């Protein structure tokens, strides 16, 4: 009966109450009595949860699906099931902005090259500073492309190094590596993995890694899965953030890239692969454990 009363209440602006009561075979007196009842505890809780869900969704720039929203609510002390969160998000019409499933462009492999693949698609690491992945992408602006190079620590998934310029030459990725060396301690024999772009396989970049005591690793030609972690980050950067904007200048694009990396991704975005923690939390927890030991 409650469902019928809720339907009448929702449609009262479009149809006469007397007609809807007749169509649904309920009495008008019963409907008005139902409207005067105080809200049930369940209904009140659902309304409170809607407010909390909307807040978490908005605070994370509409990038969270129901699982991450649920994790965010749990971190705030809310006890609620993921399916309840999912249902309420549907009621609220909250549509998430998420990367489309990532697919390789080609699976043509080229195995004959001098730099080995030391990761073999294993993007896990026992500690920070052991394995890194990197890549370059571009952001279109009215001034031309802004090129973005990143270095990601495989342990925490944190972007520990980044650089931007109007070119994608070797100095760009060297600047990103220098930032990474400042932000995390490289262990002896650390590995940096990338695709086989000409800048990454250049002799100059090879000498740079040698001077840092870092072993170089590259994937096979045309096999995007071999650098999936780096590719996945750029997918998130563009689909969750940059695709919302049209940039007049490289400077404006640069500010949004920094805002995403340092203001959201590293410190606020919950990662399912990290047990719904942020990269910064994972790194901090490791370092705290080491200091206690």
TrEMBL record:
UniProt-listed GO biological process terms: DNA integration
Residue ranges occupied by any Integrase catalytic domain in the UniProt entry: 124-287
InterPro entries from the UniProt entry: HTH-like_dom, Integrase_cat-core, RNaseH-like_sf, RNaseH_sf, Transpos_IS3, Transposase_IS3/IS150/IS904
One GO MF term attached to the UniProt entry: nucleic acid binding
The species this protein was found in: Acrocarpospora pleiomorpha
Coiled coil: none
Domain of life: Bacteria
Protein name per the record: Transposase
Entry-linked Pfam families: HTH_21, rve, rve_2
Primary role: Involved in the transposition of the insertion sequence.
């Amino acid at each position: 009966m409650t469902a019928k009363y809720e339907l009448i209440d929702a449609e009262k602006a479009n149809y006469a109450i007397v007609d809807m009561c007749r169509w649904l075979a309920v009495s008008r007196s019963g409907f008005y009595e139902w409207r005067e009842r105080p809200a049930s505890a369940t209904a009140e809780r659902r309304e409170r949860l809607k407010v909390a869900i909307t807040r978490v969704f908005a605070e994370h720039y509409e990038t969270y699906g129901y699982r991450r929203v649920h994790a965010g609510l749990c971190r705030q002390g809310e006890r609620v099931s993921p399916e309840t969160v999912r249902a309420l998000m549907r009621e609220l019409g909250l549509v998430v902005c998420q990367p489309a499933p990532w697919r390789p462009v080609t699976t043509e492999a080229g195995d004959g090259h001098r730099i080995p693949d030391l990761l073999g698609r294993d993007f896990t690491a026992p500690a920070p500073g052991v394995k890194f992945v990197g890549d370059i992408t571009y952001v279109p602006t009215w001034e031309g492309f802004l090129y973005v190079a990143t270095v990601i620590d495989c342990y925490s998934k944190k972007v520990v190094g980044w650089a931007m310029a109007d070119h994608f030459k070797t100095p760009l990725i060297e600047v990103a590596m220098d930032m990474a060396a400042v932000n995390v301690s490289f262990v002896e024999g650390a590995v940096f993995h990338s695709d086989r772009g000409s800048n990454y396989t250049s002799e100059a970049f090879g000498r740079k890694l040698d001077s840092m005591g870092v072993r170089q690793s590259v994937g096979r030609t045309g096999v995007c899965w071999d650098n999936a972690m780096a590719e996945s980050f750029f997918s998130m950067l563009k689909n969750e953030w940059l695709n919302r904007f049209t940039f007049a200048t490289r400077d404006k694009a640069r500010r949004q890239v920094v805002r995403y990396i340092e203001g959201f991704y590293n410190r606020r975005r919950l990662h399912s692969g990290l047990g719904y923690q942020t990269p910064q939390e994972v790194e901090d927890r490791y370092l705290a454990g080491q200091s206690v030991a």
